[in-house]
Amino acid sequence: LITTTSGEATVLGYDIRTEGDKIRSRIGYMPEYDALDPGLSAIDQVRYAGELLGMNPAHATRRAHEVLQYVGLKDQRYRKIETYSTGMKQAAKLACALVHDPDVLICDEPTNGLDQRAREFMLQTLRRTVSEGNRSVLMSSHVMDDVQEVCDRIVMIHKGRIVVQRRIEDLARQIEREIEISVWGGASRMQQELESRGFEVRRLGRVLRVDRANDSTTREILKAAVAADVQVRQMQEYEPDLEDIFLLIMERLGTEVKGTSDLMTAEHTGGDHD
C-alpha cells in the first residue's frame, strides 16, 4: 500500500521491496484495534484468516482448533465473536496471527483494554510463544511493565528516528544505583534532612530513593533518619526498571515527561475519546 521512497530493509533475510509475499507468509500480525467479523464464530474467523494466508481449508481448520486452544478459547471457539469480552477478542486476534505458525509475531498494544487477569494471561501466552515456539515477538506498547514482561530488547523511536536499540539489561547498567528507603512517619522530614546533607531525593509516598554515591551512603541515611526522628522500615538497593530507563532516555532527549502515562491517549487508559 505504501511504496518505498528510499533506503532498504530485510525481514528474515528477504528484501521488502521484491519479496513481500515470502515475508508476509512468515510473519503474523495482531493489530491494536478490532479487526474481527462480529458475525463469525472464532473457529470460522481463525480458519478464514488461515485461508487468506494461503492455507488449504482442511489445514486451516485444524490449525484454527489448535491455536484457539493455545490462546485459551477452546471452550468458546464456536461462539460468535460479538458475544466475546474484550479479553476474548484480543485472544482471538492473537489466534489469527498465529494460525500459520509464523517465525515473527508483531503485536500492536496486545494488552489494550484488558483487565488485570486477562492482561496477565496475554503476557504469559506471549512469553510462551517466544520460549516454546522458537519465534520472535515484536511488541509495540506504551506500558513499560508489559514490555519488560515479554521482551529482552527495546527499540525506541523519537521523531521518526531510532534513538535506542539495546538489550534492557544493558540499558539498566547505565542508570546510577539508588538506595530505596521505606519510612514510617515523617517522610517529608526525612526528605528535607537528606536534601540538607546533599542528597538528591526521589519520593514516592513513604518511599524515598537516593543515589548510592559511595560506601558511606547507608551510614548517612541512618544518621539522617535519627536527625529527622523517623523509623526506617526497610532499606535496599533499588533495581531500575524499564520505566526508569525510559525517563532517563527522554531526559537526555530534552523531553519532559513524568512517566509513560504522559504518552497515553484516552483509548490506552480506558477513558473516553472521540
Major sheet strand order: 9-10-8-11
Q: How would a crystallographer describe the biggest sheet? A: 4 strands, antiparallel
Mean pLDDT: 87
Strand content: 15-25%
Sum up the overall morphology in one term.
elongated
How many domains?
Answer: 3
State the low-pLDDT regions, or none. 262-274
Counting helices, strands and paired strands, the structural category is: alpha+beta
Domain ABC transporter: 3-112
GO molecular function: ATP binding; ATP hydrolysis activity
Keywords: Transport
Protein name: ABC transporter domain-containing protein
How would you characterize the overall build of this protein?
With 274 residues, the protein is α+β, with helices and mostly antiparallel strands. It folds into three domains: 10-140, 3-Layer(aba) Sandwich (Rossmann fold); 152-175 and 245-269, no CATH class; 178-238, Alpha-Beta Plaits. 39% of the residues lie in helices and 20% in strands. The protein is built from eleven helices and eleven strands. It has a four-stranded antiparallel beta sheet, with helices on one face. A three-stranded parallel beta sheet has the order 3-4-5. Strands 1-2 form a two-stranded antiparallel ribbon. Strand 4, helix 5 (116-131) and strand 5 form a beta-alpha-beta unit. Helix 2 (42-52) packs parallel to helix 4 and helix 3 packs across helix 4. The relative contact order is 0.09. Residues 262-274 have low confidence and may be disordered. Keywords: Transport. It holds the Pfam family ABC_tran. One of its GO terms (molecular function) is ATP binding. This is ABC transporter domain-containing protein. InterPro entries: ABC_transporter-like_ATP-bd, P-loop_NTPase.
